[in-house]
Design brief:
alpha/beta; TIM Barrel; eight-stranded parallel β-barrel; 12 helices; globular
Length: 305
């Protein structure tokens, strides 16, 4: 059974980058250090295998390996989620089963990365996967990134038909997320992403929290904690410190993976290597990474080989 339940899910959750060595293989020590840094920053939850984890570049075996490593390194300290990637119901259920076996607390379903279908097909797809597990299930609704998604009314229909879909992982402007919360009558915990953009306003409209990559994670945690303590001025100050960097990296998913990962690596002292095919950085972008890293400060944690 999971250690945490949906009522425990709140705050800033880190979605891990896939960190590779020079040989383009997943780097075990770097992945462990990334989790340690996130925990030391005070994150309220951990997640892996989303877009920032370059999940579509990972083999099925590598996805399971990332689950194993992340569960070992998180060690039940905070709620743990895995994004489920797969082109069929059977493939996604297989990934869910592995998430269950390593002690995940919830799973986040992505739409299958094939074709483009009407809402009834996606509602049926998500529902069949959700009904195959007792873990709380979220869907990742990111039409701007996936080219497919559900409207607020369709999400309401999905959760009515399939009650185990108990959370929503949004990827949209705060105005769109506000409409989703309104149409679902506030019944569903909603997390937004987008690198933490509009963080404070997402909290104001009732988002339970944000799921973002760890390049600015410490500043996001401070902003959330200040907001929850009722100090909106301090929350805004912390958010303003991370905003220029967040805008820089969130120009698209490939930009996030290229420059957001390098920003994290520079702050954390972790060398960054790409797995091809990949966007390659240029001198302008690298100079911006260095400037933002200096402004944001270093990230550190105990490092075990």
């Amino acid at each position: 059974m999971p250690n945490f339940r949906p009522d425990d899910f709140h705050g800033i959750h880190a979605i891990l980058y896939a960190l590779f060595g020079e040989n383009e293989r997943l780097d075990r020590a770097a992945m462990r250090r990334q989790v340690e840094i996130c925990l030391a920053s005070g994150v309220h939850g951990m997640a892996a295998l989303g877009l920032a984890t370059e999940v579509s570049k990972l083999t099925e075996a590598e996805r399971r390996t990332v689950m194993d490593w992340t569960a070992q390194d998180t060690a039940g300290k905070v709620p743990l989620a895995f994004t489920i990637f797969g082109a069929s119901v059977a493939e996604q259920i297989g990934q869910v089963r592995h998430a269950e076996s390593v002690g995940a607390d919830w799973v986040i379903l992505q739409p299958p990365p094939v074709g483009a279908y009407g809402a009834p097909e996606y509602i049926s797809f998500f529902g069949r996967v959700a009904e195959a597990t007792d873990l709380p299930v979220a869907i990742q609704n990111a039409p701007a990134f996936f080219g497919r998604g559900l409207s607020s009314d369709e999400i309401r229909d999905l959760t009515t038909l399939h009650p185990n879909v108990r959370l929503i992982k949004g990827e949209g402007p705060v105005t769109d997320i506000a409409g989703l919360i309104e149409r679902t009558e506030g019944r569903l915990p909603v997390f937004n992403g987008r690198g933490g953009l509009e963080l404070i306003d997402n909290l104001r409209i009732g988002c339970r929290g944000m799921i973002l990559a760890p390049d600015c994670i410490d500043h996001a945690v401070r902003a959330y904690n200040a907001f929850r303590a009722g100090d909106e001025a301090a929350a805004e100050t912390h958010y303003e410190q991370m905003l220029p960097a967040a805008v820089f990296v969130m120009q698209g998913i490939e930009n996030l993976i290229c420059y957001g990962k390098r920003l994290f690596g520079t702050r954390a002292g972790i060398p960054i290597h790409d797995r091809a095919p990949a966007m390659r950085p240029n001198e302008t972008g690298l100079a911006m990474v260095q400037r933002f890293a200096a402004s944001l400060g270093s990230l550190s944690s105990p490092f075990r080989q």
